[in-house]
Amino acid sequence: MKYKPEQLIVALDMAKTGPAMDLVERLNPFGVSFKVGLELYMVGGPKFVSSLVRRGKIFLDLKFHDIPNTTAAAVKRAATLGVSMLNVHASGGREMMSAAREAIEGLDNRPTLLAVTVLTSMNERHLSETGSPGSAEEKVNLLASLAAECGLDGVVCSPLEISSVKKTVSQNFITVTPGIRPAGEAFDDQSRVATPADVARAGGDYLVVGRPITRAQNPVEATRLILIEMGAYDE
Ligand code: C5P
After folding, report:
1. Cα 73 to chain center, whole Å?
2. Which atom of ligand 1 is found nearest the CA of 11?
3. Residue 36 forms beta bridges with which residues?
4. How many angstroms is it from 210 CA to the middle of ligand 1?
5. Using CA atoms, how far apart are residues 42 and 56, in angstroms rounded to an integer?
6. Mean predicted confidence (pLDDT) in 229-233
7. pLDDT for the residue 192
8. What is the pLDDT of residue 2?
9. Are 137 and 99 in contact (CB under 8 A)?
């Protein structure tokens, strides 16, 4: 798999817009993408997202999960900000995902719409405690198939499920994988993790990396090393 730098998505999990923008400015020369999650969205709101969209490719990771009408309306609003990627929870069901997909039909530069399958922090005990006995892989494959039937472009899953999702749905179905840890790094609260090289071997499309970059002593160097491991950095 030959990667472009934009297939590395740096998670801007920060409580203030200033440091987030600083990091964007420092990493932008690499051509990576950025992800805005709930915390940064709560402090920066749509205005901040729009200012990031002017600087690069943005994944708005708000994981919508509500009744179909409410989810579709939120997805439409998010898409009008010009983000490249956004997501809903697959467990919201067929009608919800179909309504979300319908809401962005026909937009110029329609964003990639992803379904979150099983959070990468969840292991089999967590799944069983929340009423889903069985393996994460089974649940991810079930939800990925449903998302594909609803016309979504791909899923957020763990790196460990890339191959089975591609086999179950299709090679073109996009996988976006958080839970990436360069060898020797702490897992933090992630359970189902892999290295950037593992993702490349499995043919994953986008890698989401947060703390290994944002908490690194030198985020620029950490990014460079991950891009090298992905084969996406030409010296
Ligand atoms: O710091 P770390 O690399 O663990 O960050 C992973 C990012 O990916 C976080 O922003 C988290 O919200 C997000 N994410 C995840 N699992 C999912 C979907 C998104 O960890 N299933």
Report:
1. 21
2. 10
3. 60
4. 7
5. 20
6. 93
7. 79
8. 84
9. no
Distance CA 75, CA 209 (A): 24
The reported pLDDT for the residue numbered 78 is 97
Flag whether pLDDT at 235 surpasses 70: no
**Active-site residue list:** 63
- Asked if residue 87 is part of any domain, the answer here is yes
**Residue 33 CA to ligand 1 centre (angstroms):** 14
Residue 93 placed within a domain: yes
Angstrom CA distances, 18 to 24, 42, 109, stand at: 10, 14, 28
Give how many domains the chain has, as a whole number.
Answer: 1
DSSP state of 111: P
Pocket test for ligand 1, best of 32, 59, 61, 160 (most atoms within 8 A of CB): 61
- Name the pLDDT band for 209 (thresholds 50, 70, 90): very high
Residue 152 has pLDDT above 90, yes or no: yes
Ligand 1, from 42, 177, 208: best to mutate by most atoms within 8 Å of Cβ?
208
Measured between alpha carbons, how far is 123 from 36 in angstroms, rounded to an integer? 25
Give the range of the structural domain holding residue 93, as residue numbers without chain letter.
Answer: 5-230
Residue tagged 């467990």 (tokens): 91
CATH number of the domain at 84, please. 3.20.20.70
- Structure-block tokens of residue 107: 């937009």
Q: How far apart are CA 182 and CA 184, in angstroms?
A: 6
Average of per-residue pLDDT across 71-96: 98
| pLDDT average, residue stretch 2-19 | 97
Question: Is residue 1's pLDDT more than 80?
Answer: no
Report yes or no on 177 lying in a domain: yes
In a domain, 235, yes or no: no
